[in-house]
Amino acid sequence: MSAAAGAAKAPSASLRDVTNRWWTDVKSGELGSLPIIVGLIIIAIVFQTQNDRFLTAGNFVNLIVQSAAYTTIAMGIVFVLLLGEIDLSVGYVSGVAGVIATVLLIPDGNEVPTVVAILAALGAGAAIGAFHGILFAKVGIPSFVVTLAGLIAWNGVVLLLIGSRGTVILQDDFIIDLANGFLSEGTAWLLMLVCVALYAGTQLNEIRVRRKAGLEQEPYLLPALRVAALAIALGIVVYVANQDRGIPYVGVLVAALLVFWSFILGRTRFGRYVYAVGGNAEAARRAGINVDRIRIYVFAICSLMAAVGGIILASRLRSVDTNAGGGSILLYSIAAAVIGGTSLFGGRGHIKSALLGALVIASIDNGLGLLGLGSGEKFVITGGVLLLAVTVDSVSRRRQTQAGRL
Amino acid sequence: MSDTPILELRGVSKRFGAVVALHEVDFHVDAGEVMALVGDNGAGKSVLVKSIAGIHHIDAGEILFEGEVVHIHGPKDASRLGIEVVYQDLALADNLDVVQNMFLGREELDTLHRLDEIDMESRALETLGDLSVTTIRSVRQKVAGLSGGQRQSVAVAKAVMWNSKVVILDEPTAALGVAQTRQVLELVKRLGEQGLAVILISHNLHDIFEVADSITVLRLGQNVAEFKRTETNQQEVVQAITAGKLSHVPGQAETHEVTA
């Protein structure tokens, strides 16, 4: 195709077209991150008016650390939800991984190098997930049941691994630093600039390649706005965090995982197949996709991310105990993925919903804590927010079905 | 070349246990021809199509592709020959956009093993353009937002994009309204004009008389008649569908009909 023909064939969409298209999507139920961002703003305003410590630099850094484990575990949950399945075992799988890493690092003469302990914990996570996936995909047991059994059994494994010790103190500086160490001011700014530059680069490249291929262009304003939005958002995060202790290492880890899994879901065949299997497994099968393999990989990824979350939790608490992986971890992680906008019905969602949802959950938890409210109030309110998010999902899905059957 | 049908079935039989689904069926379609396959429910249309598509294995007879005997053991074999089937339920993923659906399972990758969206989008536009599908506003639209006719167009475009030679359409207009049906029939005509062999399964004789060049009638698993569209009328076809002459009456002992 010659450049001239391409240019004549593909006029750039005007800003008006793009706005109209976006509005049509919103009306037909493709809400994207809109409700969640509105929600975060409302939460910030409400808590700030109730307690002016909510929007301080110190509390902001706390929030990053508190939401990190939920975000990581929720990323795995996003994969499972994209298939239209569920994993109820992530809480105790994270516990198992945290305990494995911590126990292997006890300095009793048998301790292993840090990297080996971490790899063992992650490997255990991936193996557990693959096991769940095989039971689900090959044996045909519903994922709800497989992972419910997992929830009980892996809780037992945590108790067995801890044994009579009760609480095991984490004695490894590298892992402790994950949630308790901070980037220096200069490094944080440098990292932020690199991120923005890379993002701007990919956006520019996209424009260049699309123009070369003679495909429809979006107005230049949009990529410019996206780059600016990223720069401003990261700038605020780095600036505010630097007023206090700085950006925690775990924040960088979460950001890296976010970019990595977004890439996998958005730009690789595997990611495309995850969406396809979640949207229409029969269509995927007929297209020659190995549906079982995708399902097993997805469950493995979910438990792997739970293991990463378990290590982060161990790092934050500097110890593991018989309750590792219990409490609100499972429920908060699933709630985070759903609140962030990943559909429970499969096929719709993004990795970023894990981050957005976890921020909402951690904000509510943190804000109510500042107001001196207990777990009772926290759970009731978090439950309400989750219900609201699922309602938005169901209603938008109904609108989509209507729009789709014109 | 013109004498050799692109796809030919000779004496194809298929049985499921005691049930004879196909009995010595002969069938053929030429390049550039729209061949309608008609018959009442249970006549064996689906079984015939699934045998061609490699989903069922035939018990007897042979399938010839471009004059050569071929053995189709699975959908992949059929695709490799250039035979594509558009099933009635279309098998599109609603949550993916038009381009993603058209390339599902056969995505193009760039040098870094990333999905090559640019290339795929260009090729999708090209294919839709060749088929004069103008009703789709944007190929980056989710399939969920498309009408029935648009979905059918996407499914057909997906089937013909891979240098296909034979396209089988299973009841493409069954669920469509008047205007949508018109779109799809136009599309079927264009496929024939572009030199593809089209096998059209339909219950709607009106549609068939509009687009088909030839009509094969199945009844109770047997080929009872074949017509040229220009030399027949609806009444004659209906007659064949409901009371076409059978060489073998189902239910009678095997030995009565062994002639070959």
Provide tags for this entry:
heterodimer; A: 406 residues; mainly alpha; ABC transporter involved in vitamin B12 uptake, BtuC; 2 domains; two-stranded antiparallel ribbon; B: 260 residues; alpha/beta; Rossmann fold; disordered C terminus
Report on the structure:
- The complex is a heterodimer of chains A (406) and B (260).
- Chain A is mainly alpha-helical and 406 residues long.
- Chain A has two domains: 54-181 and 248-398, ABC transporter involved in vitamin B12 uptake, BtuC (Orthogonal Bundle); 182-247.
- Chain A is 76% helix and 1% strand.
- The two termini of chain A are 35 Å apart.
- Chain B has a six-stranded mixed beta sheet, with helices on both faces. Chain B has a four-stranded antiparallel beta sheet with strand order 2-1-4-5, covered by helices on one side.
- Chain B has helices at residues 45-53, 75-81, 98-102, 117-130, 148-160, 178-193, 205-211, 234-243; strands at residues 7-16, 19-29, 34-38, 60-65, 68-70, 83-86, 166-170, 197-201, 214-219, 222-228.
- The relative contact order of chain B is 0.18.
- Chain B is built from eight helices and ten strands.
- Chain B has 260 residues and is α/β, with parallel strands linked by helices.
- The two termini of chain B are 28 Å apart.
- Chain B has a single domain, classed as Rossmann fold.
- Chains A and B meet through helix 9, helix 12, helix 13 and helix 17 of A and helix 4 of B.
